[in-house]
Amino acid sequence: MTSIDYSEKIPNNVNLAGDRTLQRALEQWQPNFISWWKDMGPEGSQAFDVYLRTAVSVDPGGWAHFDYVKMPEYRWGIFMSPAQQDRQIQFGEHKGQPAWQEVPGEHRANLRRIIVTQGDTEPASVEQQRHLGLTAPSSYDLRNLFQVNVEEGRHLWAMVYLLQRYFGRDGREEAEALLGRRSGDQDNPRILGAFNERTPDWLAFFMFTYFTDRDGKFQLSALAESGFDPLARTTKFMLTEEAHHMFVGESGVSRVIQRTCAVMNQLKTDDPQKLRAAGVIDLETVQRYLNFHYSVTLDLFGADQSSNAAMFYSAGLKGRFEENKRSDDHQLKDASYKILGVDGGALVEREVPMLNALNEVLRDDFIKDSIGGVSRWNKVIEKAGIPFRLAVPHKAFNRQIGTFAGLKVSPDGRVVGQEEWQRNQSVWLPTAEDRAFVASLMGRVVEPGKFANWIAPPPMGINKQPIEFEYVRFN
Ligand SMILES: [Fe+2]
Ligand SMILES: [Fe+2]
């Protein structure tokens, strides 16, 4: 066996070359990662040359280096945002103490669990999206899909680095287990529900990257506050990549809507059947997909009242989104928060201790952030002179986790009976027929500059390249 110089092969700013233990751990893990990528990464694409962004350093000039690369040869790097001198823990019981550079013994199990749960979502999404390349609507979109995929792979590396560097033998075992679970698998599924759903078509992909990658943004932002400094610095750098994933989602949905509106105006109709016959996705179906992805993503934030969330915060492991911008005492022992509950078949607000409601606090921040893009989508519809408007459903709609689990609530926030739910399910959530229709549109369009009929071209290309640039070369 020839030995690989991992410190050179893996771009990094964590001094890999100076850490023999870590190098040995990576030497064992890296070939398993590559064989996982070949099995579960983008299907049938291993030999393509893809115009990809690779991070080669963390400074603004270095993390967006573009070139053609075959994906199995992508240089998955390990990066941390620069250390902040004398950084202190900003919240919880250890507030004001120096941030930890090593794992505190008492928090070891919880930190490991937090890192494993985050790490598990990264390969999961690659697995969920692995068939999409076969039905890409353009070379531009295909490249964006692959960019998201390799970066989720890098996020896995980021979490595996933390496990192997800071958690010894259990860390190495967890790193292996991250390659063992499979999205949707009966026996060994991914940890979180939404990451076991399929991403069967490109509308689902765009909704996923808009909503579910945004959950990633909020989880990473909360971890970027962590008192465990290596976790804070690692997740901070991951956020720079997450922004592109959400851009792919927001612009993707926007282009779907733009194309549909153009055909609505051309044919002077809002009849979904006529629009479908013309090969575009009716806005009602877009709304149903939105309802589904939004509600499934809300569940990812966990139960609305959680003693774990309280403990993670008080212990200084996981903060709030933009902890530093908040003017309270950052300990929250006396603070309360309004959450929604159910009382006598109606939704009612009640005050609970804020520490226990921190999942809900983060979920509410996510909701505010999500609405922005939806109003930008509505601008596209408005500009086309069409009266239809998209909206996010009520937060109690279609929930499986927390107080609302199993409760039947309409998108406008009314608790409804079983009968009304049954009657409207096909209006509120994507039906098998919707999915079959969207699937029927998915053909492969990859000639540079050409786009599938159901989606408008983007206003500009990637990295200032023209739209008709050859983003993927097939070999
Ligand atoms: Fe990620
Ligand atoms: Fe992502």
Automatic annotation (TrEMBL):
GO terms for cellular component: cytosol. InterPro entries: Aromatic_CoA_ox/epox, Benzoyl_CoA_Oase_BoxB, Ferritin-like_SF, RNR-like. One of its GO terms (molecular function) is oxidoreductase activity. One of its GO terms (biological process) is phenylacetate catabolic process. PANTHER family: 1,2-PHENYLACETYL-COA EPOXIDASE, SUBUNIT C (PTHR30458:SF0), PHENYLACETIC ACID DEGRADATION PROTEIN PAA (PTHR30458). This is Benzoyl-CoA oxygenase component B. It comes from Chondromyces apiculatus DSM 436. The lineage of its organism: Bacteria, Pseudomonadati, Myxococcota, Polyangia, Polyangiales.
